[in-house]
Design brief:
By secondary structure, this protein is an alpha/beta fold. It contains 14 helices and 25 strands. The protein is 31% helix and 27% strand. Strands 3, 4, 5, 14 and 15 form a five-stranded mixed beta sheet that branches. Strands 23-24-1-25 form a four-stranded mixed beta sheet, covered by helices on one side. It binds ligand EPZ. The site of ligand EPZ has 26 residues, from helix 1, helix 5, helix 6 and helix 12.
C-alpha cells in the first residue's frame, strides 16, 4: 500500500491544467452502450474509477482503447457481443457509480442485472429513485440475490417525477428514455453540469433532449444513436480542490481549462472568505490574501455549493480565525474527515447535519486515514498548510478521482511525495 507524505507550510505558485470531469465521463461511458459504432471521447481522466468503468463495459461487450492523443475510444456494435447484461458485484462494489449502466442496458438490451450498490462511507446512498423512474418507463424490477434485476419488453415515454434530486438517477432515466417509444418528461431532474454533459453527448449522438440544465427535461424517443467525437467538460471539483490548495497556502495559482460558470458557488464563497479570484476566459487565478473571514456553507444541488467540495472547504475554514458552520444537505453523514482533521489540531464539533468549525492558529502534521475521495482531498489540503509532516494513508480513495495529484501539487511548490507504507 502507498501513502502520501506532505511537509507543510509551503506556498503554492504556478499553473496547472484541469482534467475532464470524472462524474461526467462515467455516465457518458455507460451511455455508449446505447450507441452503434465508435465514439472518441477527449478529456477522460486517467484514474481508477475510469478503469473500473472500462472493465464493466468490456464485460458488457464494449471495446475500449486509450488513443495516443489521450482520448478514450469506445465501441459498441449492434448485433455483436451484446448478449451480456450483468454488472457484477466485484466491480460495482469497487465503484458505486457503475449503477449508471442500468438505464442504458435496460433500454438497449431489454435486460439489466446490476449488483445492488449498497451504502458507503458517505451515507446510505439508496437507488429507489432510479428504480421508480425506470419502472415508470415500463421496466419490471426485482431484487434477487443482491442484484437489481430489470427487464422490459418495451419502454414507453411517460412523465417521471422524482421525489428528490438525484444526479445518477436522472442520468439513468434520461439514458433509458432516449430510445423509448414516445416522449418522456422528467420533473425535478438534477441540473448538475455532469448531467447536462451527458444530455449534450446523447443529443450529438442523435437523441432529442430539451430543457438541458433546467429541472424539467423532455426527451423525444428516437430509433437509434450513433458513435461520435466528444470532449468532456472540465472537472469542477478538481478545479475547486486546486483553488482551495492555492487559498489555504496563501498561494497564487492559475488553473487552465475551467468553466467559471460551473464554479459560481465555489468562486463566490472563496471571495467571501477573502481570496482574490480572477477569471479570464477558461482560466482562473486564485490568490490567497491571508486575511480571511469565517463563513457559513450549506451544500445543495447545483447551482448550490457541491457536497463534493465540503471537505476541502472544511480544511480551509480550519485555518480561519473564528467560527464557521458547514451544513450538509446532500449526504447528512458526510463528515468522516472531521475526526481526522481533529487529529491535526482542528476544532470541529458535529451537531446533527452541521459541523461547527473554529479556526486554530495552526494545524499540525500527523497520520491521517482517508475514508473517501473528497475526504482525502480535504486531508491533503490540510497537510499542505500544517506544521511538520502529514502522512496520508489509504490513498487508493484519492486515486479513484484525482490524476497524479501529488505530482501536480509538487510542480506548484508543495513538498509532497508518494511512498510505500
Ligand atoms: C453523484 O452521486 C456523484 N457521483 C457524487 O460524487 C456526488 O456527491 C453526488 O452526485 C451529489 O452531487 C457521480 O456522479 C459518479 P445523488 P449520486 O443520487 O448520483 C439521495 C464523488 O466524490 N438518493 O444525487 O449517487 C441520496 O441518498 C461522488 O465524486 C435517494 O434518496 O448522488 C442523497 O441524499 C461521491 N434515492 C441525494 O439523493 C436515490 O435513488 C443525492 O444523491 C438516489 C439518491
Amino acid at each position: 500500500m502507498e501513502k502520501i507524505v506532505i511537509e507543510g507550510e509551503r506556498r503554492l505558485e504556478g499553473r496547472t491544467r484541469i482534467n475532464g470531469a470524472k462524474n461526467a465521463a462515467l455516465p457518458i461511458m455507460a451511455a455508449c452502450i446505447l450507441l452503434h459504432g465508435t465514439s472518441r471521447i477527449k478529456g477522460v481522466p486517467n484514474i481508477i474509477d475510469i478503469q473500473t468503468q472500462s472493465e464493466i463495459l468490456q464485460k458488457l461487450g464494449g471495446k475500449i482503447k486509450r488513443l495516443d492523443d489521450g482520448a478514450l475510444e469506445i465501441t459498441f456494435l449492434d448485433g455483436e457481443n451484446n448478449d451480456s447484461f450483468t454488472a457484477p458485484y466485484e466491480l460495482v462494489s469497487k465503484m458505486r457509480a457503475s449503477i449508471c449502466v442500468l438505464g442504458p442496458l435496460l433500454s438497449k438490451r431489454r435486460r439489466a442485472k446490476v449488483s445492488y450498490p449498497g451504502g458507503c462511507v458517505i451515507g446510505q446512498r439508496p437507488v429507489d429513485l432510479h428504480i421508480k423512474g425506470l419502472e415508470a418507463l415500463g421496466a419490471r424490477i426485482e431484487t434477487e440475490e443482491g442484484y437489481i434485476n430489470a427487464t422490459a419488453d418495451v419502454l414507453k415515454g411517460t412523465n417521471v417525477s422524482f421525489a428528490g434530486k438525484t444526479v445518477l438517477g436522472t442520468c439513468n432515466v434520461m439514458s433509458a428514455a432516449v430510445l423509448a417509444e414516445g416522449t418522456t418528461t422528467i420533473d425535478y431532474a438534477a441540473c448538475e453540469p455532469e448531467v447536462q454533459d451527458l444530455a449534450h453527448f446523447l443529443n450529438k449522438a442523435g437523441a432529442k433532449i430539451s430543457g438541458i440544465g433546467e429541472s424539467k427535461l423532455t426527451i423525444e424517443g428516437v430509433r437509434e444513436l450513433h458513435g461520435i467525437k466528444y470532449e468532456i467538460i472540465p472537472d469542477r471539483i478538481e478545479a475547486g480542490t486546486f483553488m482551495i490548495a492555492s487559498a489555504i497556502t496563501r498561494g497564487d495559482v492559475t488553473l487552465e481549462n475551467i468553466r467559471a460558470d460551473h464554479l459560481s458557488a465555489v468562486i463566490e464563497k472563496l471571495k467571501e472568505i477573502g481570496t482574490e479570484v480572477i477569471v479570464t476566459g477558461n482560466e482562473i487565478r486564485v490568490r490567497g490574501t491571508g486575511s480571511y473571514r469565517t463563513t457559513d456553507i450549506t451544500t445543495l444541488p447545483y447551482p448550490g455549493m457541491p457536497t463534493d467540495m465540503q471537505a476541502q472547504f472544511m480544511a480551509l475554514l480550519c485555518t480561519v480565525e473564528g467560527k464557521s458552520i458547514i451544513t450538509e444537505k446532500i449526504f447528512p453523514d458526510r463528515f468522516m474527515h472531521a475526526a481526522e482533521l481533529r487529529r491535526m489540531g482542528a476544532d470541529i464539533r458535529i451537531e446533527g447535519t452541521s459541523a461547527i468549525v473554529t479556526g486554530t492558529p495552526h494545524l499540525s502534521g500527523t497520520n491521517v486515514q482517508v475514508s473517501d475521495l473528497r475526504a482525502g482531498a480535504g486531508l491533503v489540503l490540510a497537510g499542505l498548510v500544517a506544521k511538520g509532516s502529514t502522512h496520508v494513508h489509504r490513498i487508493y480513495h484519492l486515486d479513484r478521482g484525482y490524476e497524479r495529484l501529488e505530482e501536480r501539487l509538487s510542480a506548484l511548490g508543495a513538498a509532497i511525495k508518494r511512498t510505500e507504507e
